[in-house]
Amino acid sequence: MRVPYASSSSQTDLVHQNLCEYLDSGTYCDLTLIVGSERFPCHRIILASSSPYFQALLTHMFKENGLSSIELHGIESQTFAILLRYIYSGKIELDDKNVQDLFIASDMFQLNEVVQFCCHYLSISLNEQNVIDVWKLANELECLSLKADAEQYLITHFRNLLKLDLIKSIPRDLLITAISNDNLIVDSEQQVFEAILIWYCNNLDQPVEQLLDNVRFELISKEHQNIILQQIEIKNPSTIHRIEQSIHQRERSLCNTSTRRGAKQTCYIFGGYGLSTDDTNAHLLTSSYRCQLHTSDSPISYTIEIEQVHGDEMRYPRMHHQAVALGSLIYVVGGEDGDNIFNSVEIFDPLSKVNSKQWTQTSSMMTPRCNFGLVALDSNTLYALGGHIGADITSSIERFNCKTDEWILLPYRLQSPCYGFACVHLNGSIICIGGFCVFNLPVKTTEIFNTTTGQSYLCTDMFEARGFCSACLDEESGRIFVFGGADANGNALRSAEVYNTSGCRWFPLPPMIFNRISPCVYRVGYLIIVFGGRTSLDRHSEILRTAEIFHIEKNIWIRINDVPLQVYGAAAILR
Protein backbone atom coordinates (compact mmCIF):
# COMPACT_ATOMS: atom_id res chain seq x y z
CA MET A 1 0.00 0.00 0.00
CA ARG A 2 1.18 3.51 -0.83
CA VAL A 3 -0.48 6.63 0.66
CA PRO A 4 0.79 10.13 -0.31
CA TYR A 5 1.14 12.76 2.42
CA ALA A 6 2.15 16.41 2.25
CA SER A 7 3.49 18.87 4.78
CA SER A 8 0.92 20.90 6.63
CA SER A 9 0.90 24.68 6.55
CA SER A 10 2.24 24.72 10.10
CA GLN A 11 5.26 22.69 8.97
CA THR A 12 5.85 25.09 6.08
CA ASP A 13 5.59 28.04 8.45
CA LEU A 14 8.13 26.38 10.75
CA VAL A 15 10.59 25.93 7.89
CA HIS A 16 10.21 29.59 6.88
CA GLN A 17 10.66 30.66 10.48
CA ASN A 18 13.91 28.66 10.80
CA LEU A 19 15.22 30.02 7.50
CA CYS A 20 14.60 33.59 8.69
CA GLU A 21 16.48 32.84 11.91
CA TYR A 22 19.45 31.49 9.91
CA LEU A 23 19.36 34.65 7.78
CA ASP A 24 19.24 36.98 10.77
CA SER A 25 21.99 35.12 12.71
CA GLY A 26 24.21 34.43 9.72
CA THR A 27 24.20 30.68 10.50
CA TYR A 28 25.36 28.53 7.57
CA CYS A 29 25.66 31.61 5.29
CA ASP A 30 28.03 30.95 2.38
CA LEU A 31 27.46 34.01 0.21
CA THR A 32 27.37 37.78 0.64
CA LEU A 33 25.39 40.00 -1.71
CA ILE A 34 26.51 43.62 -1.90
CA VAL A 35 23.87 46.23 -2.75
CA GLY A 36 25.10 49.82 -2.66
CA SER A 37 26.94 50.24 0.63
CA GLU A 38 25.16 47.37 2.39
CA ARG A 39 26.17 43.71 2.65
CA PHE A 40 23.63 40.87 2.92
CA PRO A 41 24.94 37.49 4.13
CA CYS A 42 22.72 34.72 2.74
CA HIS A 43 22.59 31.09 1.57
CA ARG A 44 23.53 30.13 -1.97
CA ILE A 45 21.14 27.15 -2.13
CA ILE A 46 18.14 29.16 -0.96
CA LEU A 47 18.74 31.95 -3.49
CA ALA A 48 19.28 29.46 -6.33
CA SER A 49 15.99 27.76 -5.39
CA SER A 50 14.03 31.03 -5.30
CA SER A 51 14.19 32.17 -8.92
CA PRO A 52 15.66 31.39 -12.36
CA TYR A 53 17.71 34.60 -12.11
CA PHE A 54 19.66 33.51 -9.03
CA GLN A 55 19.85 29.93 -10.24
CA ALA A 56 21.62 31.08 -13.41
CA LEU A 57 23.80 33.57 -11.50
CA LEU A 58 25.02 30.95 -9.06
CA THR A 59 25.75 28.12 -11.47
CA HIS A 60 28.63 27.52 -13.82
CA MET A 61 27.05 29.73 -16.48
CA PHE A 62 28.42 32.85 -14.75
CA LYS A 63 31.79 33.62 -13.24
CA GLU A 64 30.03 34.69 -10.04
CA ASN A 65 29.25 31.05 -9.17
CA GLY A 66 32.58 30.58 -7.43
CA LEU A 67 32.70 33.92 -5.62
CA SER A 68 31.90 34.35 -1.96
CA SER A 69 30.47 37.83 -2.55
CA ILE A 70 28.56 39.27 -5.49
CA GLU A 71 27.67 42.92 -6.16
CA LEU A 72 24.14 43.60 -7.48
CA HIS A 73 23.32 46.73 -9.48
CA GLY A 74 20.13 48.50 -10.49
CA ILE A 75 18.38 48.17 -7.15
CA GLU A 76 18.24 50.09 -3.86
CA SER A 77 19.39 48.31 -0.71
CA GLN A 78 16.08 48.84 1.10
CA THR A 79 14.18 47.30 -1.82
CA PHE A 80 16.51 44.31 -1.92
CA ALA A 81 16.15 43.81 1.84
CA ILE A 82 12.37 43.41 1.41
CA LEU A 83 12.78 40.91 -1.42
CA LEU A 84 15.43 38.91 0.45
CA ARG A 85 13.12 38.69 3.45
CA TYR A 86 10.35 37.45 1.10
CA ILE A 87 12.65 34.73 -0.31
CA TYR A 88 13.22 33.39 3.21
CA SER A 89 9.78 33.98 4.74
CA GLY A 90 7.38 33.73 1.80
CA LYS A 91 5.76 36.97 2.98
CA ILE A 92 5.90 40.54 1.73
CA GLU A 93 4.15 43.77 2.64
CA LEU A 94 3.36 46.26 -0.12
CA ASP A 95 2.47 49.93 0.17
CA ASP A 96 2.22 52.94 -2.12
CA LYS A 97 5.86 53.91 -1.42
CA ASN A 98 7.55 50.60 -2.22
CA VAL A 99 5.32 48.82 -4.71
CA GLN A 100 6.71 50.27 -7.95
CA ASP A 101 10.35 49.68 -6.94
CA LEU A 102 9.50 46.14 -5.82
CA PHE A 103 7.66 45.55 -9.10
CA ILE A 104 10.73 46.50 -11.14
CA ALA A 105 13.15 44.56 -8.94
CA SER A 106 11.03 41.39 -8.70
CA ASP A 107 10.68 41.42 -12.47
CA MET A 108 14.48 41.71 -12.80
CA PHE A 109 15.05 38.86 -10.31
CA GLN A 110 12.24 36.78 -11.88
CA LEU A 111 10.37 36.49 -8.61
CA ASN A 112 7.14 35.87 -10.45
CA GLU A 113 4.88 35.60 -7.42
CA VAL A 114 5.98 39.02 -6.19
CA VAL A 115 5.39 40.39 -9.69
CA GLN A 116 1.79 39.13 -9.45
CA PHE A 117 1.40 40.62 -5.98
CA CYS A 118 2.61 43.99 -7.25
CA CYS A 119 0.33 43.86 -10.29
CA HIS A 120 -2.66 43.13 -8.08
CA TYR A 121 -1.79 45.91 -5.61
CA LEU A 122 -1.30 48.47 -8.38
CA SER A 123 -4.52 47.38 -10.06
CA ILE A 124 -6.68 47.84 -6.95
CA SER A 125 -5.01 51.14 -6.04
CA LEU A 126 -5.33 52.87 -9.42
CA ASN A 127 -6.32 56.52 -9.29
CA GLU A 128 -6.20 59.60 -11.51
CA GLN A 129 -2.79 60.60 -10.18
CA ASN A 130 -0.99 57.28 -10.76
CA VAL A 131 -2.75 55.62 -13.68
CA ILE A 132 -0.38 57.05 -16.30
CA ASP A 133 2.75 55.99 -14.40
CA VAL A 134 1.27 52.54 -13.73
CA TRP A 135 0.48 52.10 -17.42
CA LYS A 136 4.03 53.12 -18.38
CA LEU A 137 5.46 50.63 -15.91
CA ALA A 138 3.17 47.80 -17.00
CA ASN A 139 3.97 48.54 -20.63
CA GLU A 140 7.72 48.54 -19.95
CA LEU A 141 7.61 45.28 -17.98
CA GLU A 142 5.10 43.71 -20.39
CA CYS A 143 2.57 43.00 -17.66
CA LEU A 144 -0.44 42.73 -19.95
CA SER A 145 -3.12 42.31 -17.28
CA LEU A 146 -2.04 45.41 -15.36
CA LYS A 147 -1.69 47.36 -18.59
CA ALA A 148 -5.25 46.40 -19.53
CA ASP A 149 -6.51 47.40 -16.06
CA ALA A 150 -4.83 50.79 -16.35
CA GLU A 151 -6.32 51.33 -19.81
CA GLN A 152 -9.77 50.41 -18.54
CA TYR A 153 -9.40 52.80 -15.61
CA LEU A 154 -8.40 55.59 -17.98
CA ILE A 155 -11.35 54.86 -20.27
CA THR A 156 -13.70 55.01 -17.28
CA HIS A 157 -12.16 58.12 -15.65
CA PHE A 158 -11.10 60.04 -18.75
CA ARG A 159 -13.19 63.09 -17.80
CA ASN A 160 -11.42 63.41 -14.45
CA LEU A 161 -7.96 63.35 -16.02
CA LEU A 162 -9.11 66.09 -18.38
CA LYS A 163 -10.37 68.20 -15.45
CA LEU A 164 -7.13 67.65 -13.51
CA ASP A 165 -5.08 68.72 -16.54
CA LEU A 166 -3.28 65.36 -16.66
CA ILE A 167 -4.01 64.66 -20.32
CA LYS A 168 -0.98 66.65 -21.47
CA SER A 169 1.42 64.09 -19.97
CA ILE A 170 -0.28 60.95 -21.26
CA PRO A 171 1.76 58.76 -23.66
CA ARG A 172 0.52 59.00 -27.24
CA ASP A 173 -0.14 55.26 -27.55
CA LEU A 174 -2.25 55.30 -24.39
CA LEU A 175 -4.25 58.31 -25.60
CA ILE A 176 -4.96 56.56 -28.91
CA THR A 177 -6.06 53.43 -27.05
CA ALA A 178 -8.49 55.49 -24.96
CA ILE A 179 -10.05 57.69 -27.64
CA SER A 180 -10.39 54.83 -30.13
CA ASN A 181 -12.47 52.85 -27.63
CA ASP A 182 -16.23 53.04 -28.16
CA ASN A 183 -16.76 52.62 -24.39
CA LEU A 184 -14.78 55.76 -23.51
CA ILE A 185 -16.84 57.55 -20.86
CA VAL A 186 -17.19 61.24 -21.73
CA ASP A 187 -19.92 63.82 -21.37
CA SER A 188 -19.80 64.52 -25.09
CA GLU A 189 -17.54 64.12 -28.12
CA GLN A 190 -16.33 67.67 -27.56
CA GLN A 191 -14.30 66.39 -24.59
CA VAL A 192 -12.40 63.99 -26.86
CA PHE A 193 -11.59 66.82 -29.26
CA GLU A 194 -10.57 69.09 -26.39
CA ALA A 195 -8.30 66.42 -24.86
CA ILE A 196 -6.50 65.90 -28.18
CA LEU A 197 -5.88 69.64 -28.62
CA ILE A 198 -4.57 70.00 -25.05
CA TRP A 199 -2.26 67.02 -25.55
CA TYR A 200 -1.03 68.24 -28.93
CA CYS A 201 -0.25 71.75 -27.65
CA ASN A 202 2.09 70.14 -25.13
CA ASN A 203 3.54 67.61 -27.59
CA LEU A 204 4.02 69.60 -30.79
CA ASP A 205 6.86 67.35 -31.93
CA GLN A 206 4.45 64.43 -32.33
CA PRO A 207 1.87 63.93 -35.12
CA VAL A 208 -1.78 64.74 -34.42
CA GLU A 209 -3.43 63.21 -37.49
CA GLN A 210 -3.97 59.70 -36.11
CA LEU A 211 -5.48 61.18 -32.96
CA LEU A 212 -7.98 63.25 -34.93
CA ASP A 213 -8.97 60.11 -36.84
CA ASN A 214 -10.71 59.00 -33.64
CA VAL A 215 -12.84 62.12 -33.19
CA ARG A 216 -16.47 61.77 -34.29
CA PHE A 217 -16.74 65.20 -35.85
CA GLU A 218 -20.31 64.57 -36.95
CA LEU A 219 -21.28 64.90 -33.29
CA ILE A 220 -19.58 68.29 -32.87
CA SER A 221 -21.09 71.34 -34.49
CA LYS A 222 -18.78 73.76 -36.31
CA GLU A 223 -19.70 76.36 -33.72
CA HIS A 224 -18.42 74.16 -30.90
CA GLN A 225 -15.26 73.22 -32.78
CA ASN A 226 -14.41 76.92 -32.99
CA ILE A 227 -15.28 77.50 -29.32
CA ILE A 228 -12.94 74.70 -28.23
CA LEU A 229 -10.13 75.99 -30.47
CA GLN A 230 -10.51 79.42 -28.88
CA GLN A 231 -10.61 78.05 -25.32
CA ILE A 232 -7.37 76.10 -25.78
CA GLU A 233 -5.72 79.42 -26.77
CA ILE A 234 -3.42 78.07 -29.44
CA LYS A 235 -1.22 81.04 -30.32
CA ASN A 236 0.93 79.64 -33.12
CA PRO A 237 -0.85 80.30 -36.48
CA SER A 238 0.90 77.37 -38.19
CA THR A 239 -0.32 75.01 -35.45
CA ILE A 240 -3.90 76.27 -35.85
CA HIS A 241 -3.66 75.86 -39.62
CA ARG A 242 -2.34 72.30 -39.28
CA ILE A 243 -5.20 71.34 -36.96
CA GLU A 244 -7.87 72.98 -39.12
CA GLN A 245 -6.48 71.29 -42.23
CA SER A 246 -6.53 67.90 -40.52
CA ILE A 247 -10.12 68.43 -39.34
CA HIS A 248 -11.24 69.47 -42.83
CA GLN A 249 -9.69 66.36 -44.39
CA ARG A 250 -11.51 64.12 -41.93
CA GLU A 251 -14.85 65.88 -42.29
CA ARG A 252 -14.77 65.28 -46.05
CA SER A 253 -14.58 61.51 -45.53
CA LEU A 254 -17.16 61.22 -42.74
CA CYS A 255 -19.61 58.33 -42.71
CA ASN A 256 -22.50 57.81 -40.30
CA THR A 257 -21.10 57.92 -36.75
CA SER A 258 -23.07 56.91 -33.71
CA THR A 259 -22.56 58.27 -30.22
CA ARG A 260 -19.98 56.39 -28.17
CA ARG A 261 -21.48 53.68 -26.02
CA GLY A 262 -19.68 55.26 -23.07
CA ALA A 263 -20.86 58.80 -23.76
CA LYS A 264 -23.09 60.44 -21.22
CA GLN A 265 -26.22 60.00 -23.28
CA THR A 266 -29.34 62.11 -23.00
CA CYS A 267 -32.78 61.19 -24.26
CA TYR A 268 -34.65 64.17 -25.68
CA ILE A 269 -38.45 64.14 -25.72
CA PHE A 270 -40.35 66.31 -28.18
CA GLY A 271 -44.06 67.06 -28.35
CA GLY A 272 -46.75 64.53 -27.56
CA TYR A 273 -50.01 64.83 -25.67
CA GLY A 274 -50.20 64.90 -21.91
CA LEU A 275 -49.42 66.84 -18.75
CA SER A 276 -46.26 68.26 -17.27
CA THR A 277 -45.73 68.84 -13.55
CA ASP A 278 -47.79 72.05 -13.21
CA ASP A 279 -50.60 71.13 -15.62
CA THR A 280 -54.13 70.20 -14.57
CA ASN A 281 -55.49 69.33 -18.03
CA ALA A 282 -53.92 67.32 -20.84
CA HIS A 283 -52.85 69.22 -23.95
CA LEU A 284 -50.28 69.23 -26.72
CA LEU A 285 -46.86 69.70 -25.14
CA THR A 286 -44.90 72.56 -26.65
CA SER A 287 -41.75 72.27 -24.54
CA SER A 288 -38.86 69.90 -25.08
CA TYR A 289 -37.49 67.74 -22.29
CA ARG A 290 -34.24 65.98 -21.57
CA CYS A 291 -34.18 62.68 -19.77
CA GLN A 292 -31.20 61.05 -18.04
CA LEU A 293 -30.76 57.79 -16.18
CA HIS A 294 -28.75 57.78 -12.96
CA THR A 295 -27.28 54.64 -11.41
CA SER A 296 -26.44 54.17 -7.72
CA ASP A 297 -24.27 51.44 -6.23
CA SER A 298 -24.63 49.30 -3.08
CA PRO A 299 -27.23 48.14 -3.86
CA ILE A 300 -27.62 48.95 -7.53
CA SER A 301 -30.64 51.16 -8.18
CA TYR A 302 -31.80 53.37 -11.03
CA THR A 303 -33.46 56.77 -11.12
CA ILE A 304 -34.81 58.55 -14.16
CA GLU A 305 -34.71 62.35 -14.20
CA ILE A 306 -36.62 64.56 -16.64
CA GLU A 307 -36.16 68.31 -16.94
CA GLN A 308 -37.48 70.91 -19.32
CA VAL A 309 -35.13 72.32 -21.95
CA HIS A 310 -35.30 76.09 -21.58
CA GLY A 311 -35.19 78.33 -24.62
CA ASP A 312 -37.32 78.65 -27.71
CA GLU A 313 -39.92 75.99 -28.62
CA MET A 314 -41.05 74.09 -31.68
CA ARG A 315 -42.93 76.26 -34.11
CA TYR A 316 -45.68 73.68 -34.45
CA PRO A 317 -46.66 71.68 -31.33
CA ARG A 318 -47.33 68.14 -32.49
CA MET A 319 -47.90 64.51 -31.60
CA HIS A 320 -47.56 61.21 -33.49
CA HIS A 321 -44.51 62.69 -35.21
CA GLN A 322 -40.99 61.24 -35.46
CA ALA A 323 -37.48 62.37 -34.55
CA VAL A 324 -34.01 61.20 -35.62
CA ALA A 325 -30.46 62.37 -34.95
CA LEU A 326 -28.19 63.42 -37.80
CA GLY A 327 -24.77 64.24 -36.37
CA SER A 328 -25.18 66.80 -33.61
CA LEU A 329 -28.68 67.83 -34.79
CA ILE A 330 -32.12 66.32 -34.18
CA TYR A 331 -34.75 66.42 -36.95
CA VAL A 332 -38.39 66.48 -35.84
CA VAL A 333 -40.67 65.53 -38.71
CA GLY A 334 -44.42 65.38 -39.49
CA GLY A 335 -47.14 64.57 -36.98
CA GLU A 336 -50.44 66.25 -36.15
CA ASP A 337 -52.03 68.71 -33.74
CA GLY A 338 -55.54 67.22 -33.76
CA ASP A 339 -56.74 69.46 -36.59
CA ASN A 340 -53.82 69.45 -39.01
CA ILE A 341 -51.39 66.82 -40.23
CA PHE A 342 -47.93 68.23 -40.88
CA ASN A 343 -45.27 67.78 -43.50
CA SER A 344 -43.04 70.35 -41.80
CA VAL A 345 -39.55 69.59 -40.51
CA GLU A 346 -37.89 71.38 -37.60
CA ILE A 347 -34.28 71.01 -36.47
CA PHE A 348 -33.24 71.06 -32.82
CA ASP A 349 -29.62 71.79 -31.89
CA PRO A 350 -29.06 70.61 -28.30
CA LEU A 351 -25.61 72.23 -28.23
CA SER A 352 -26.63 75.71 -29.35
CA LYS A 353 -26.44 78.47 -26.77
CA VAL A 354 -26.75 81.38 -29.19
CA ASN A 355 -29.56 83.56 -27.78
CA SER A 356 -31.34 80.36 -26.73
CA LYS A 357 -32.01 79.78 -30.43
CA GLN A 358 -32.20 75.99 -30.64
CA TRP A 359 -34.92 75.48 -33.26
CA THR A 360 -34.66 76.15 -37.01
CA GLN A 361 -36.79 75.19 -40.00
CA THR A 362 -35.83 73.15 -43.06
CA SER A 363 -37.57 71.82 -46.16
CA SER A 364 -40.91 70.08 -45.66
CA MET A 365 -41.74 66.55 -46.76
CA MET A 366 -43.51 66.04 -50.06
CA THR A 367 -46.45 64.45 -48.22
CA PRO A 368 -47.92 65.27 -44.79
CA ARG A 369 -47.55 62.20 -42.58
CA CYS A 370 -48.77 61.11 -39.17
CA ASN A 371 -47.93 57.88 -37.29
CA PHE A 372 -45.32 57.06 -39.92
CA GLY A 373 -41.82 55.59 -39.89
CA LEU A 374 -38.64 57.69 -40.01
CA VAL A 375 -34.99 56.58 -39.97
CA ALA A 376 -31.59 58.12 -40.60
CA LEU A 377 -29.83 55.92 -43.13
CA ASP A 378 -26.48 57.69 -42.78
CA SER A 379 -25.19 61.09 -41.78
CA ASN A 380 -26.96 62.81 -44.70
CA THR A 381 -30.11 60.85 -45.50
CA LEU A 382 -33.57 60.42 -44.00
CA TYR A 383 -36.29 58.01 -45.11
CA ALA A 384 -39.98 58.62 -44.30
CA LEU A 385 -42.32 55.66 -44.83
CA GLY A 386 -46.07 55.01 -44.65
CA GLY A 387 -48.34 56.78 -42.17
CA HIS A 388 -51.67 58.45 -42.83
CA ILE A 389 -53.30 61.76 -43.74
CA GLY A 390 -56.65 61.62 -42.01
CA ALA A 391 -58.36 58.47 -43.29
CA ASP A 392 -55.92 58.10 -46.20
CA ILE A 393 -53.36 55.44 -45.26
CA THR A 394 -50.26 55.40 -47.45
CA SER A 395 -47.44 53.05 -48.40
CA SER A 396 -45.32 55.73 -50.08
CA ILE A 397 -41.65 56.38 -49.28
CA GLU A 398 -39.69 59.60 -49.58
CA ARG A 399 -36.07 60.49 -48.99
CA PHE A 400 -34.36 63.62 -47.66
CA ASN A 401 -30.80 64.72 -48.42
CA CYS A 402 -29.60 67.18 -45.79
CA LYS A 403 -26.78 68.42 -48.03
CA THR A 404 -29.14 69.52 -50.78
CA ASP A 405 -32.00 70.16 -48.33
CA GLU A 406 -34.41 68.32 -50.66
CA TRP A 407 -37.10 65.65 -50.29
CA ILE A 408 -37.87 63.35 -53.22
CA LEU A 409 -40.71 60.85 -53.54
CA LEU A 410 -39.27 57.44 -54.37
CA PRO A 411 -40.77 55.06 -56.96
CA TYR A 412 -40.93 52.33 -54.31
CA ARG A 413 -43.61 51.42 -51.80
CA LEU A 414 -44.15 49.28 -48.76
CA GLN A 415 -45.96 45.99 -49.34
CA SER A 416 -49.20 47.44 -47.90
CA PRO A 417 -50.43 50.82 -46.65
CA CYS A 418 -49.74 50.98 -42.92
CA TYR A 419 -49.55 53.40 -39.99
CA GLY A 420 -48.64 53.28 -36.31
CA PHE A 421 -45.75 50.84 -36.83
CA ALA A 422 -42.33 50.78 -35.18
CA CYS A 423 -39.38 51.41 -37.46
CA VAL A 424 -35.58 50.91 -37.18
CA HIS A 425 -32.61 50.92 -39.54
CA LEU A 426 -29.93 48.23 -39.63
CA ASN A 427 -27.22 47.56 -42.23
CA GLY A 428 -28.89 49.38 -45.10
CA SER A 429 -32.35 47.94 -44.47
CA ILE A 430 -35.37 49.58 -42.87
CA ILE A 431 -37.41 47.24 -40.70
CA CYS A 432 -41.08 48.10 -40.13
CA ILE A 433 -42.82 46.24 -37.31
CA GLY A 434 -46.52 45.87 -36.58
CA GLY A 435 -48.86 48.83 -37.05
CA PHE A 436 -52.40 49.15 -38.41
CA CYS A 437 -53.58 48.08 -41.88
CA VAL A 438 -56.21 49.76 -44.09
CA PHE A 439 -58.96 48.11 -42.00
CA ASN A 440 -57.59 49.84 -38.87
CA LEU A 441 -56.66 46.50 -37.35
CA PRO A 442 -53.25 45.77 -35.78
CA VAL A 443 -50.93 43.42 -37.67
CA LYS A 444 -48.10 41.05 -36.72
CA THR A 445 -45.99 41.71 -39.78
CA THR A 446 -42.27 42.39 -40.05
CA GLU A 447 -41.50 44.15 -43.33
CA ILE A 448 -37.95 44.79 -44.50
CA PHE A 449 -37.23 47.50 -47.08
CA ASN A 450 -33.84 47.31 -48.82
CA THR A 451 -32.71 50.88 -49.50
CA THR A 452 -30.20 49.75 -52.13
CA THR A 453 -32.53 47.72 -54.34
CA GLY A 454 -35.81 49.44 -53.44
CA GLN A 455 -37.40 46.06 -52.78
CA SER A 456 -39.37 45.14 -49.69
CA TYR A 457 -40.44 41.76 -48.38
CA LEU A 458 -42.29 40.30 -45.44
CA CYS A 459 -40.39 38.31 -42.86
CA THR A 460 -41.41 36.33 -39.79
CA ASP A 461 -44.54 37.57 -37.99
CA MET A 462 -44.54 38.61 -34.35
CA PHE A 463 -46.37 36.48 -31.82
CA GLU A 464 -48.94 39.21 -31.25
CA ALA A 465 -50.52 41.85 -33.47
CA ARG A 466 -49.81 45.36 -32.21
CA GLY A 467 -50.07 48.95 -33.38
CA PHE A 468 -48.64 52.10 -31.79
CA CYS A 469 -45.86 49.94 -30.33
CA SER A 470 -42.38 51.27 -29.59
CA ALA A 471 -39.05 49.71 -30.53
CA CYS A 472 -35.34 50.13 -29.98
CA LEU A 473 -32.33 48.53 -31.62
CA ASP A 474 -29.27 46.86 -30.13
CA GLU A 475 -26.85 47.35 -33.03
CA GLU A 476 -24.11 45.19 -31.56
CA SER A 477 -26.25 42.04 -31.33
CA GLY A 478 -28.57 42.86 -34.25
CA ARG A 479 -31.67 42.54 -32.04
CA ILE A 480 -34.81 44.66 -32.14
CA PHE A 481 -36.88 45.02 -28.98
CA VAL A 482 -40.59 45.86 -29.29
CA PHE A 483 -42.80 46.96 -26.41
CA GLY A 484 -46.53 47.31 -25.80
CA GLY A 485 -48.93 48.80 -28.34
CA ALA A 486 -52.66 48.49 -28.91
CA ASP A 487 -54.59 45.28 -29.61
CA ALA A 488 -57.63 44.86 -31.89
CA ASN A 489 -59.94 46.24 -29.17
CA GLY A 490 -57.80 49.34 -28.65
CA ASN A 491 -56.51 48.18 -25.27
CA ALA A 492 -52.89 48.55 -24.23
CA LEU A 493 -50.61 45.50 -24.25
CA ARG A 494 -48.06 44.48 -21.62
CA SER A 495 -46.29 42.05 -23.90
CA ALA A 496 -42.82 42.55 -25.36
CA GLU A 497 -40.89 40.69 -28.05
CA VAL A 498 -37.38 40.63 -29.50
CA TYR A 499 -36.45 40.04 -33.13
CA ASN A 500 -33.12 38.37 -33.92
CA THR A 501 -32.12 39.68 -37.34
CA SER A 502 -29.44 37.01 -37.86
CA GLY A 503 -32.00 34.20 -37.57
CA CYS A 504 -35.10 36.17 -38.69
CA ARG A 505 -37.00 34.96 -35.64
CA TRP A 506 -39.13 36.53 -32.94
CA PHE A 507 -38.84 35.53 -29.29
CA PRO A 508 -41.16 36.50 -26.43
CA LEU A 509 -39.82 38.61 -23.58
CA PRO A 510 -41.11 38.89 -20.02
CA PRO A 511 -44.16 41.21 -20.05
CA MET A 512 -43.83 44.79 -18.90
CA ILE A 513 -45.07 45.79 -15.47
CA PHE A 514 -47.60 48.19 -17.06
CA ASN A 515 -49.79 48.04 -20.18
CA ARG A 516 -48.67 50.80 -22.56
CA ILE A 517 -49.66 52.26 -25.93
CA SER A 518 -47.09 54.52 -27.61
CA PRO A 519 -44.60 54.74 -24.71
CA CYS A 520 -41.27 56.53 -24.86
CA VAL A 521 -38.42 54.04 -25.22
CA TYR A 522 -34.65 54.40 -25.36
CA ARG A 523 -31.63 52.20 -24.66
CA VAL A 524 -28.44 52.91 -22.71
CA GLY A 525 -26.06 49.95 -22.86
CA TYR A 526 -27.86 46.85 -21.60
CA LEU A 527 -30.74 48.88 -20.10
CA ILE A 528 -33.91 49.78 -22.00
CA ILE A 529 -35.92 52.56 -20.37
CA VAL A 530 -39.68 52.59 -20.97
CA PHE A 531 -42.02 55.27 -19.61
CA GLY A 532 -45.27 57.08 -20.38
CA GLY A 533 -47.85 55.96 -22.92
CA ARG A 534 -51.59 55.45 -22.43
CA THR A 535 -53.81 52.59 -21.31
CA SER A 536 -56.19 52.45 -24.32
CA LEU A 537 -57.15 54.26 -27.51
CA ASP A 538 -60.26 55.66 -25.81
CA ARG A 539 -60.02 59.46 -25.68
CA HIS A 540 -60.50 59.40 -21.90
CA SER A 541 -57.85 56.76 -21.24
CA GLU A 542 -55.22 57.24 -18.55
CA ILE A 543 -51.94 58.84 -19.57
CA LEU A 544 -49.11 57.20 -17.65
CA ARG A 545 -46.23 58.67 -15.68
CA THR A 546 -44.86 55.27 -14.60
CA ALA A 547 -41.40 54.12 -15.69
CA GLU A 548 -39.63 50.78 -15.84
CA ILE A 549 -36.36 49.34 -17.11
CA PHE A 550 -35.74 46.14 -19.05
CA HIS A 551 -32.34 44.64 -18.19
CA ILE A 552 -31.21 42.93 -21.41
CA GLU A 553 -28.58 40.70 -19.80
CA LYS A 554 -30.72 39.62 -16.84
CA ASN A 555 -33.95 39.44 -18.88
CA ILE A 556 -35.97 41.12 -16.14
CA TRP A 557 -38.06 44.26 -15.64
CA ILE A 558 -37.15 46.75 -12.90
CA ARG A 559 -39.68 49.24 -11.56
CA ILE A 560 -38.20 52.72 -11.12
CA ASN A 561 -39.48 56.11 -10.01
CA ASP A 562 -42.43 57.82 -11.69
CA VAL A 563 -41.52 60.66 -14.03
CA PRO A 564 -42.84 64.24 -13.75
CA LEU A 565 -44.37 63.99 -17.21
CA GLN A 566 -47.47 62.16 -18.43
CA VAL A 567 -47.19 61.79 -22.19
CA TYR A 568 -48.02 59.65 -25.20
CA GLY A 569 -47.47 60.17 -28.91
CA ALA A 570 -44.16 61.94 -28.20
CA ALA A 571 -40.91 61.46 -30.08
CA ALA A 572 -37.97 60.22 -27.95
CA ILE A 573 -34.46 60.24 -29.35
CA LEU A 574 -31.13 59.42 -27.72
CA ARG A 575 -28.37 61.93 -28.32
Principal-axis shape equals elongated
In angstroms, what is the radius of gyration? 32 Å
As a percent range, the share of helical residues equals 25-40%
Under the CATH scheme, which class of the largest domain? Mainly Beta
Average of the residue pLDDT scores: 89
Q: How many distinct beta strands?
A: 32
Percent of sequence in beta strands: 25-35%
Distance, first to last CA = 74 Å
- Structurally, the number of domains stands at 3
Q: Tell me what the CATH architecture of the largest domain is.
A: 6 Propeller
Spans where pLDDT lies below 50 across 5 or more residues: none
> What's the CATH topology name of the largest domain?
Neuraminidase
Structural class: alpha+beta
Outline the biggest β-sheet: 4 strands, antiparallel
Please work out how many helical segments DSSP would assign. 14
CATH superfamily assignment of the largest domain?
Kelch-type beta propeller
Oligomer: single chain
Order of the strands making up the biggest sheet: 8-7-4-32
Notes on the protein architecture:
Helix 6 runs parallel beside helix 8 and helix 7 packs antiparallel against helix 8. With 575 residues, this protein is an alpha+beta fold. The mean pLDDT is 89. It folds into three domains: 136 residues, Potassium Channel Kv1.1, Chain A; 93 residues, Serine Threonine Protein Phosphatase 5, Tetratricopeptide repeat; 308 residues, Kelch-type beta propeller (Neuraminidase). The protein is built from 14 helices and 32 strands. Strand 27 and strand 28 form a beta hairpin. The longest helix has 17 residues. The strands form nine sheets. The chain has a four-stranded antiparallel sheet, with no helix packed on it. The protein has a four-stranded antiparallel sheet with strand order 9-10-11-12, with no helix packed on it. Keywords: Kelch repeat, Repeat. This is BTB domain-containing protein. It holds the Pfam family Kelch_1.
